[in-house]
Design a protein that fits this description.
It is built from 5 helices and no strands. It is mostly helical.
Length: 129
C-alpha cells in the first residue's frame, strides 16, 4: 500500500468513528454492559470482539493489508477492553452514577482514550504505509 493521503487518513478516522458509534451504541447489549467491569467476563470480551471485527473491516475497506488490519484490530480490541474495564471498575467501586459529575468526567476520559487509540491506529497506517 502506498503512503495514504491526508484525505484518505481522515476517511479512515471517520470509519473508526462510525465503528465506535455502532459498537458502543447499536450493538452493545445489557449483558456486555453488565460484565465490562468484571475482568475476564465474557460480556466485556464480546464487546471488545465487536470492536476488533469493526476495526478489521474498516481497515480492510481502507486498503490495509490483512496482517496489518488484523494486528491493528487486535490492538484496538485489547485497548478497548482495558479502557472500558477501568472505567466500569472505578465507577462501580466509587458508586458513581449519571447523577455524579465524576461519572461524566470518567466517561469523557474513557471516550477520549478510545478516540486517541483510533488516531494512533491511523498514524500506524501512515507509518506502515
Amino acid at each position: 500500500m502506498e503512503t495514504p493521503s491526508a484525505l484518505s487518513i481522515l476517511f479512515l478516522v471517520l470509519l473508526f468513528q462510525l465503528k465506535h458509534a455502532v459498537c458502543d451504541g447499536l450493538l452493545q447489549t445489557r449483558w456486555m454492559l453488565s460484565e465490562k467491569g468484571i475482568y475476564g467476563k465474557p460480556g466485556g470480551i464480546a464487546h471488545a470482539g465487536l470492536h476488533l471485527l469493526g476495526s478489521f473491516a474498516g481497515l480492510v475497506v481502507f486498503g490495509a493489508g490483512l496482517a496489518a488490519a488484523l494486528g491493528l484490530a487486535l490492538v484496538d480490541a485489547v485497548a478497548h477492553y482495558h479502557i472500558d474495564f477501568f472505567k466500569e471498575m472505578v465507577s462501580r467501586q466509587r458508586g458513581w452514577t449519571p447523577r455524579d459529575n465524576y461519572f461524566w468526567w470518567l466517561l469523557t476520559a474513557d471516550q477520549a482514550l478510545h478516540h486517541f487509540t483510533y488516531l494512533a491506529m491511523a498514524a500506524a497506517v501512515v507509518l506502515l504505509g
